[in-house]
Amino acid sequence: MAGCLFAVIWLSLLFYCLFMHQYAEKSQRIEFKAEIISLVSQNSDWISFDVRLISEREQGNFFEALALNNVPRYYRLTWQKPENLAVGQIWQFSAKLKGISSIQNQGGYNQQKQFISQHIIAKGRVKQAQLLSYSTSLRQHVVDTLSPILSQLTQGDILQALILGDKSALSALRWQQLRQTGAGHLVAISGLHLSVVFGLFYTLWLCLARYALAWQHLGKIQLAMLLAAIFTLGYGYMSGFAIATQRALLMLLLLLVFSFIKQFSHNWDRLIYALFFVLLIDPFASLGAGLWLSFGALAIILLSVKAAIVDPPPRLAADPHQQNRDDLQPVMLSFMVVKAKLIWVNIVHGIRVLWSIQWRLALLLGGLQGILFGEVSPHSIWLNMLLVPWFSLVVIPLTMLSFCVWLVAWGVMWIVGMDVILQQSISLAIFQWADASLEPFAWLLQLSDHLPLKQLAVTEQQLAGSVFFALAVILLMLQRYMARELKLVYSGLVAILMLPIFISTLVEEEILLSPPSSDVTSWQLHVIDVAQGMAVVLHQGQHGIIYDTGAAYGDFTYAQRAILPFLASKGIRYIDYIVISHEDNDHAGGLNVLRDAFPQATLIADFSISGMTTSAQVPQACEGELHWRGVQLSFIAHALDASSNDNNRSCVMKLSDGQSSVLLAGDIEASREQALIAANADIKADILLVPHHGSRTSSTPAFIDYVDPQLAIFTAGFSNQYGFPKADVLARYQQHGCQLLQTGHVGQISINFTADDYKIATYRQQMAPFWYNRLFRFGELLKAE
Fold first, then answer.
1. Average pLDDT, stretch 507-534?
2. Is the overall model pTM greater than 0.85, yes or no?
């Protein structure tokens, strides 16, 4: 109870220190002094980077002084056409900031939770800035020097991740290959890497001490352990002290402490101590996937490895040195046979232990990855069986030795003032062997592109069923310890826990194989949170329709970030229609991504689309009616002159199942609304996706009265630059008696339609109502509870 109380107080205090009241409640342009700590990404002429605030204010309140001076706080900034940015620079920024609230959908990447785990409390755009000073740390100096050298090597991106903990050089293709092979942990510095480094330098120092020092044996061992720990700590510093690195270093230091004080400690003790210290330093680390994967992997290893009891070699009939010379040869031959058998038994036992660890890691960590990322890698078992020993015995030792040799050579070359070109040539030669050792790894990564079932998306139903199935397997393994009279009840419980995974599989297959019915019993409509834009998914079973695709900015698309992960999480495999209201970026930006993902989907749009080469690819006109799996889709044609703007040409679509109806109005404005009313169009609906995100150019009182909606949904991003939805537009819908929802405030909005009625659920309020998913406004005073 004392531990729980301390945890609550400590977490609440840190939360208050980070999210205390700082400025006015609304987003505004402020000036602050900050240091650049990392360059996150670059997209076109925009660059994204993180800065650490440097406080210049004196506070009388104890907690505010503690927060400003002792708790690091960070901003995620973007800058268009920036100056030459580098880690370690200190700038005086003038930026427009807003809260860390980000899009919230099922299956998608939760950037908001990631921000909190990294102590990022605001994000914004730089308007003006002035460079104040620039000082680089030793690590950054090494990174700046070594990165250009490694970039010239074939596998330089992986070497950069292994040596410096910098994964920014890994391409999107390489990341995809690492995910589908389950080998991402090999390029993320963790306990495996630090254990190999510690073992390598411990062995080297022990061998050196054996011939160079005349001390007693225990003193040599302790010195070797201390020196190896110093080198390992330096490696952790060079890697940036990630969560997995912190955990491994803490366990290593605890091992050293217990060894020096001659106190026995169990592996589980050190694991719990390491977890305690990691959470004491940063309680929000529990929101990051790294902590769960790191500690989960080590816990699985500890559970998998049992005491290795190898049968001793058969006792010889007599000591060979006491035998007669005539009997010596048969005895020695027998002795060699027994020794060979012992070696073989040890090899077989080692392979068996390695296999037991690998299949448990693949199965249990695969389940954990399914929970965290919504996908699993079936080939990770056999691939890791090959890759883990190769990295442990070859890649990591060669890489570390090359790095140490390069550090010494770099210092010598700097002292003698060697030519830069010659320095690069020598540096490249030093890392050639390490680069060559990664060629088999790169070959396997490329091979994974051609493997069947290389990566499987896991639906929420499958994930829940798998969790129950895993519990059933664990209980089944423990059944032998149960009393005989309880085994029947125990077996029944195991069978019940195994049912969900089989039932969900059978239901999915039945839905997939059954023909579409004209009598619909239930269907779902999901308004996806794509910030300032629009994306709607209509689905029944594994089939769906997409209306609008969200925006795209350079290589980034909300279709890739939000829509595709959502479809995978819901098990929607077949998109029958993609409807594009009009060609504005916030409605059609992700079209190419969705076309590539679902090439068989029929496209419906009223404008020409580039890249269409065949008649089958030409979009159908937005007119007429379609009957889709019991839902009627009515497209409301427009009769406007050529001078009408693009918004007024939006494809207006009405959905109806005979009981409930939904109107998707795109970005139509007042003139189109009036034309629909004048034409007596069938646009009355229970649910209205408000035109043009709540702009003043739309949602006239006459239009609202004519549609007569019960629920009005605004597809507008939180704190967007246009100020949508406008206050007077909100007031019109409120006066009409509508229930109001905004995707930027509540996240994804899901509506389940049945034969009798419909039910509404939102992501922040019903699907994932956790404290870290709440709406964070910049400068708002939040209560820790």
1. 73
2. no
